[in-house]
Specification:
With 411 residues, this protein is of the alpha/beta class. It has helices spanning 36-39, 42-47, 53-59, 65-73, 84-87, 98-103, 173-181, 201-212, 226-229, 236-242, 262-273, 292-304, 328-336; strands at 132-136, 139-143, 188-192, 219-223, 248-252, 278-284, 308-314, 349-354, 359-362, 368-372, 375-379, 385-389, 401-403. The chain is built from 13 helices and 13 strands. The protein has a nine-stranded mixed β-sheet. It has a four-stranded antiparallel β-sheet with strand order 10-11-12-13, with no helix packed on it. α3 runs antiparallel to α4. The protein is globular and about 70 Å long. Bound molecules: iron/sulfur cluster.
């Protein structure tokens, strides 16, 4: 697909000079001659996505051989697609731009480490009908599409998303809905994919209506990266439709503070105004957000956008993601710099999705130093140690006190 460009010199790249906490509008860059109505039209954005190595070569003057080769091979694994809007968040001069690392393929993606898997969360083995995953007792994952506005190079569902690797994803909505209806224990349905907000308003309303009509379904959720990749999709009409299906929550996916632009903030505001509680799920990624300053700016900006930072995921062991995976030690270090150092609402839960289908397991820096015979030694964010004692029935034994020199041996 050819993308409209006005030609001429590349737009200036000054992203690194922008303070992380500021909100900026995405530049128009190569698309500066496109009309406002086209630029703000989500269908125009989708139609003009960057989808080939040749387009990347034209638009990204600093494209490396490693990236070009990765882009050439992408359509055999996870397709390349970047909306013009999101592309313009890339610092064109910076080979290690954190936005670029997330969406521009690299050859390293084609290397599978021995510990990596095509389905690290074991979804396929927990799928009673096509497109539905029932892994936890009272909730299901309802996959609606294999398409996304742009493709994240570390996607845990890359086996099916974009349909590049021959997975042949075919959800069967009737069977998925019938499964939910016949399982009264399912009280929570998460629509995901791919990105559910790529469905038309009518199709999405049809699905949500069917699910909402099942009496035991208490709670609906949508997992989406659309407000970040394609905020133009969050139209007033979409919001008006979604608000008919409350309680409806939404999990969005931002990894770096620069993704929270003026446009993304406005889109998230429209969703919040429609009464949709918003949570963010970040993935810990090397050279993207494995840094306390970056993460703190991200969570603080999310709160300004009325989004609760919900999860920080250790990057799943998805095939071809080794070059993007930060260590658990790094994740814990980042968490240590959040807890107590910023608003509690801004602190996500750091989790590892236990490989093979074990589910999400929270991991935290150690704040309980020891717990024995009714004595608990705890450490606060400043490293100060306190003692809390209690009787067998849970009543405190004496006033909690600060310990200058803890005697850990007594525990
Ligand atoms: S938006 Fe979500 S489903 Fe789509 S590629 Fe990114 S991580 Fe995967």
């Amino acid at each position: 697909m050819q993308t409209d460009i006005s030609g001429g010199e590349e737009p200036p790249s000054d992203h690194r000079l922008q303070p992380l906490k500021e909100f900026h509008s995405a530049a128009r860059g190569y698309w500066r001659d496109v009309s406002d109505s086209d630029w703000n039209d989500w269908r125009w954005q989708l139609k003009h996505r960057i989808t080939s190595a040749e387009q990347l070569q034209r638009f990204l003057p600093t494209l490396t051989p490693e990236e070009y080769a990765g882009a050439k091979l992408a359509n055999h694994k996870l397709a390349l697609a970047i909306t013009p809007y999101f592309f313009n968040l890339i610092d064109l001069a910076d080979e290690n731009c954190p936005i670029r690392l997330q969406v521009v393929p690299r050859l390293a993606e084609t290397h599978t480490a021995p510990w990596e898997m095509s389905d690290p969360c074991g979804e396929d083995s927990h799928s009673p009908v096509p497109g539905l995953v029932h892994r936890y007792p009272d909730r299901v994952l309802f996959l609606v599409t294999d398409r996304c506005a742009s493709y994240c190079r570390y996607c845990t569902r890359s086996r099916l998303v974009s349909n590049a690797s021959g997975y042949d994803f075919h959800p069967e909505f009737d069977k998925q809905i019938a499964y939910v209806a016949s399982h009264p224990e399912v009280r929570d349905v998460l629509l995901s994919g791919g990105d559910p907000l790529l469905l038309s308003d009518d199709k999405l309303a049809f699905l949500l209506g069917k699910l909402r009509a099942i009496p035991h379904v208490e709670f609906l959720r949508i997992g989406t990266r659309i407000p970040i990749f394609l905020p133009q999709r969050i139209t007033p009409e979409l919001c008006a439709m979604l608000k008919q299906f409350h309680p409806l929550f939404m999990s969005v996916h931002a990894n770096h503070p620069r993704e929270l632009t003026t446009e993304a903030r406005a889109a998230l505001g429209r969703l919040a105004d429609a009464g949709i509680p918003l949570g963010n799920q970040s993935v810990l990624l090397k050279n993207v957000n494995d840094d306390a300053t970056v993460m703190k700016a991200l969570v603080q900006k999310l709160l300004i956008c009325r989004v609760k930072p919900y999860y920080l995921y250790q990057c799943d062991l998805i095939a071809g993601s080794a070059h993007l995976r930060a260590s658990v030690a790094k994740g814990l270090e980042v968490m240590e710099q959040l807890r107590g150092h910023t608003t509690g609402y801004g602190v996500p839960t750091y989790v590892i999705d236990a490989p093979g289908g074990g589910g999400k397991v929270p991991i935290n820096p150690e704040y309980v130093l020891c717990r024995n015979a009714g004595r608990v030694l705890i450490r606060n964010y400043e490293g100060k140690i306190f003692e809390y004692t209690e009787n067998a029935d849970g009543t405190p034994r004496c006033k909690p006190k600060k310990i200058e020199e803890p005697d850990l041996c007594k525990c």
